[in-house]
């Protein structure tokens, strides 16, 4: 049984404090990710997630006064109320500004902890919604209705805070895109047996030293605000510039989104300026992730012709882990197939993965496509892939991706005294 009661069990106590104090404040914590866990995985998994939340809520009690009442909402089981009813000196009164500051502290405490719990079950790291409400006691109105107004006020504030936060996130992202505050690292794609480089994949990063440096959060934020194509366009321009700084002479593999083929600025007169003076389109391969669902593959194939005529080639990324499957591979007829790292991980111990990789190799051979295994980290994985006939690979086994700007930075020599 949950250590935190439901609202009905504490309502009389909360109403009593409303009468005594003449006013009442509440914080609301809306744990929407828990609801998504239940819809996706079922009640038992949801219950297990709730059990992990309970110790976090016990820690939360230390942030507030003794006597404040925590309760789950009867109407929505993943919604939590914290009624600020703890005893206080007569001269001490809550202020709206104080309630806001407490709301911020509670959000800063809960967001990372509950985010980690939700991330165990969900691929994303979703946020939580927190609001506050305040009501004055009215002797002409039932206490039940006053408590209802209090909780509705908290819900409205949570929605307002969410809107303000999303606006700030969007403005921050627009600033990143406009300033092209991104950078690129390059990871080699090698012949597995010899280690000789076939090419390098350009991997974009967000503003250095921020929570958006990793591409996962950066592109997830762009997806939430409908700015993926805009972000990808900025990353593409910077990648070509960084490639010149890197001094790359091999094939450049560049991640793209399906909208790239409709980007007139990429195919237009500015194309040669993007590529720079030394990079030919024939040395550029555009990677399309198989996780991106392309609504009309045949129209997409037709749109690819403009790129193919200029000399670009295409690769299908994450083969074996996407939604579109064999139809995408067969229709697009890409020059390269990149096997998702989930199939490569511990492949020396997984016979089913070995069979899937072998089938992809045979399919690539039939299509005339070069097959590349992604995410190789161990010698055992490398050897298993070689035994299956895999010729090319990519992964940390050959080192971390290289930052050309770090390599170009001047070295500072400190004289020893």
Q: Could you outline the blueprint of secondary structure elements for this entry?
A:
Blueprint: H1 7-21, E1 23-30, H2 32-41, H3 43-60, E2 69-72, E3 79-83, H4 96-121, E4 129-136, H5 143-178, E5 183-191, E6 197-205, H6 215-224, H7 228-246, E7 251-256, H8 264-267, H9 271-275, E8 284-289, H10 297-310, E9 313-319, H11 325-332, E10 336-339, H12 341-344, H13 351-367, E11 370-373, H14 379-388, E12 392-394, H15 404-408
Describe the structure.
Helix 10 links the parallel strand 8 (284-289) and strand 9. The chain has two domains: 7-169, Alpha-Beta Plaits; 179-408, TIM Barrel, CATH 3.20.20.450. With 417 residues, the chain is an alpha/beta fold. Helix content is 48%, strand content 18%. Helix 2 runs antiparallel to helix 3.
Compact summary:
By secondary structure, the chain is of the alpha/beta class.
């Amino acid at each position: 049984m949950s250590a935190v009661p439901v609202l009905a069990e504490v309502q009389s106590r909360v109403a009593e404090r409303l009468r005594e104090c003449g006013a009442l404040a509440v914080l609301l914590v809306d744990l929407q990710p828990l609801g998504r866990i239940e819809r996706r995985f079922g009640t038992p998994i949801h219950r297990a997630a709730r059990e992990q939340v309970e110790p976090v809520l016990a820690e939360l009690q230390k942030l507030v006064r003794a006597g404040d009442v925590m309760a789950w909402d009867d109407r929505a089981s993943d919604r939590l109320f914290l009624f600020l009813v703890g005893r206080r000196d007569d001269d001490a009164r809550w202020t709206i500004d104080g309630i806001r500051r407490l709301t911020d502290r509670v959000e800063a405490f809960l967001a990372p902890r509950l985010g980690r719990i939700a991330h165990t079950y969900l691929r994303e790291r979703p946020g939580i919604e927190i609001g506050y409400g305040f009501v004055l006691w009215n002797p002409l109105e039932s206490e039940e209705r006053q408590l209802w107004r209090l909780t509705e006020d908290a819900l409205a504030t949570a929605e307002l805070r969410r809107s303000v936060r999303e606006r700030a996130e969007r403005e921050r992202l627009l600033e990143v895109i406009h300033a092209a505050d991104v950078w690129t690292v390059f990871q080699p794609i090698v012949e597995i047996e010899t280690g000789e480089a076939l090419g390098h994949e350009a991997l974009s990063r967000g503003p250095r030293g921020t929570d958006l440096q990793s591409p996962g959060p950066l592109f997830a934020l762009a997806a939430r605000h409908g700015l993926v194509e805009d972000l990808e366009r900025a990353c593409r321009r910077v990648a070509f510039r960084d490639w010149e700084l890197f001094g790359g002479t091999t094939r450049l593999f560049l991640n793209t989104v399906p909208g790239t083929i409709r980007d007139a600025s990429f195919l237009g007169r500015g194309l040669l300026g993007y590529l720079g003076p030394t990079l030919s389109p024939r040395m550029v391969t555009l990677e399309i992730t198989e996780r991106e669902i392309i609504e009309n593959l045949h129209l997409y194939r037709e749109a690819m012709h403009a790129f193919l005529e200029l000399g670009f080639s295409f690769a299908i990324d994450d083969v074996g882990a996407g939604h579109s499957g064999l139809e995408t591979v067969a229709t697009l007829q890409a020059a390269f197939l990149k096997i998702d790292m989930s199939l490569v991980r511990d492949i020396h111990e997984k016979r089913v993965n070995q069979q899937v990789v072998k089938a992809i190799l045979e399919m690539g051979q039939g299509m005339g496509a070069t097959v590349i295994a992604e995410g190789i980290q161990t010698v055992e994985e490398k050897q298993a892939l070689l035994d299956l006939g895999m010729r090319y690979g990519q992964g940390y086994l050959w080192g971390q991706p290289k930052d050309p700007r770090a390599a170009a930075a001047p070295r500072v020599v400190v004289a020893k005294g």
